[in-house]
Amino acid sequence: MNDRRVVVTGYGVISCVGNNVPDFWDALINGRCGIGAITRFDASEYRTRIAGEVKGFDFSGYMSPKDAKRLDLFCQYAIAAADEAMATAGLPQDLRGGDVVDPNRVGVIVSSGIGGLYTMSEQDRVLLERGPGRISPFLIPMMIGDLASGNISIRYGAGGPNLGLVTACSTGTHSIGESFWTIKRDDADIMICGGAEATIVPLGVAGFCALKALSTRNDDPQHASRPFDLDRDGFVMSEGAGVMILEEYEHAKKRGAKILAELVGYGATGDAHHVTAPHPEGEGMARALKMALRHAGLNPEDIDYINAHGTSTQLNDKFETMAIKSVLKDHAKKVAVSSTKGATGHALGAAGGLESIVCVKAIETGIIPPTINYETPDPLCDLDVTPNQPKEREVKVAVNQNLGFGGHNGVLIFRKFE
Fold first, then answer.
1. Alpha carbon 8 to chain centroid distance?
2. pLDDT in tens, 330-341
3. Does residue 58 sit in the same domain as residue 182?
4. Burial (Cβ within 10 Å: 0-12, 13-18, ≥19) of residue 220
5. For the segment 357-413, what is each residue's pLDDT rounded down to a tens digit?
6. Are 11 and 360 in contact (CB under 8 A)?
7. Contacts with 70 (C-beta within 8 Å, 6 or more apart), sequence order
8. Same domain for 14 and 93?
9. Is 274 labeled as catalytic in the residue annotation?
């Protein structure tokens, strides 16, 4: 099983800083922020009135108006990102009848942390105002989170393993990691995987406001998300989708696919501590990183770059720093770290998909994207967080790590393909 190598052959993005991978990457390395005042609804009475909304998204480039009406926005984002990923990988939109790709050996795990919250909220309003007879027959298939995978499978004719999983803000990372093992154990040759989220709706924002988890820098949205900065005051909600094509190496080689990177390690652990707070000292995240290194056959000093979860909350950034230092020891001060959430905000279940793509781009380009809005160092976050300016550096090994409510930790390790 373990001699089956897993490589990355495609990726696609919908985000608040760009609706394709080139625009997304250009924004990140140039420090452009996608956060602004909420425009989707009147947020004037909310404690937090800012978010990272996707801009300029036009569903007509991907589907008919009739189809769009039957898909929640998170599914629309997932399909758009998957289309780009398939094109990047040189795969056809319809896998049926091909002689290079067996559609029954192509699986999908594109998941959402929350699912169709907009649809759920709207249909609840219809129920209360107009009664049960006016509820849309599409409520359930638009609402449930597995329908990103379901609709992508139907769209391309992918008949392999097909599921959606939910681990809050680790959802995208775990979806890619479980896809890695699906290929490793020979249940598929190709996996379409990642995360999608669209929860900038009144109920979603109000819920996170009630938790007091969000930044309240409403008058300065461009500088509200400030990972590892001493004056950070909470995360900023965002949305989008990050989708990756994983492929077994020999399969990719046979069809002449361009290999972007190799996925070599995956770790998943539970904090067993608290429903919303990370484990003190980042103990669960540290175990996930150790697990991923063990599967990859790498040592801590092999790591060149870590894309941190880096949410801009007091507890996450402090405990994540502890986790990195506990595993990397002396190497922790030498490794390049950054959180791209300063630019993108926190895309929840989509974060792991987007940030895994950041790791692959860092390997491809030799550029470490900066942690923007870093002004006042926090002595408890004393890593090289690549403040405000990108850094040129050869990246042979890149790590993406995410954690989510419920104590879910996920770590992925990507390596330059050789």
1. 15
2. 999 999 999 999
3. yes
4. exposed
5. 999 999 999 999 999 999 999 999 999 999 999 999 999 999 999 999 888 999 999
6. yes
7. 138, 141, 142
8. yes
9. no
DSSP H helices, 102-248, are 117-130, 139-143, 147-156, 171-184, 202-210
Q: For residues 19 and 96, state if they share a domain.
A: yes
Calpha distance 402→269 (Å, rounded): 11
Match 């002396």 to its residue by tokens.
330
- DSSP strand pairing (50-51 vs 367-368): unpaired
To the query of whether residue 75 is one of the catalytic residues in this protein, the response is no
Are residues 272 and 392 both part of a single domain? Answer: yes
* Dihedral over Cα of 297, 302, 305, 309: its sign: positive
Does the residue 1 lie in any domain?
no
Instruction: For residue 156, give both structure tokens.
Output: 């391309």
CATH number of domain containing 408: 3.40.47.10
Q: Give the pLDDT score at 280.
A: 78
- 121 assigned to some structural domain: yes
Q: Which of 169, 193, 209, 359 is catalytic?
A: 169
**Residue 240 and residue 368 share a domain:** no
Neighbours of 96 (CB within 10 A): 12
Distance between alpha carbon 206 and the CA centroid of its chain, in Å?
22
Q: Are residues 54 and 165 in the same domain?
A: yes
Q: Which domain holds residue 365?
A: 266-415
Considering 174, 295, 309, 408, which one is annotated as catalytic?
309
Triad 251, 256, 259: Cα angle to 5°? 80
pLDDT at 2: 67
**215 three-class SS:** coil
Distance CA 400, CA 377 (A): 23
> How many domains are contained in the chain?
2
To the nearest 10 degrees (0 to 180), the angle between helices 202-210 and 117-130 is: 110
Given a cut of 50, the residues of the chain with pLDDT beneath it are none
Provide the Cα torsion 78, 83, 88, 89; round to 10°: 90
Q: How far is CA 163 from the centre of its chain?
A: 17
User: Pick the catalytic residue: 174, 251, 346, 408?
Assistant: 346
Q: Are residues 183 and 68 in the same domain?
A: yes
Residues 82 and 161 in one domain: yes
Annotated active-site residue 346? The verdict is yes
CB-based contact 339:308 (threshold 8 Å) = yes
